[in-house]
Amino acid sequence: MSSDLLVVGGGITGLALAVHAARAGLQTTLVDAGPLGGQRSTQQSGALIRTHYADASSAALALEGLEHFETFEERYGASAGFTRTGFAYVPEPHEDLGARIAMLQAVGVETELRTPGELRSIDAAVRVEDAEAVAWEPRSGYASPALTCAALAGAAVAAGAVMHERRPVERLLPGGGARLRDGAVLEAGRTVLCAGAASAELAATVGLDLPLQPTAVKLAVFERHVETHLAVIDAPNGTYLRPDGVGGTLVGRRTWTDEPLARTDSPLPAVDDGFVADARERLVRRLPGAAGARVLSTRAGMLDMTPDGLPLVGPTNIDGLWCCCGWSGTGFKTGPSVGAALAGWLNAGEPPAELRAFDPHRAQLGGIAVRSPH
Question: What pLDDT digit, counting tens, does each position of 316-331 carry?
Answer without folding.
Answer: 999 999 999 999 999 9
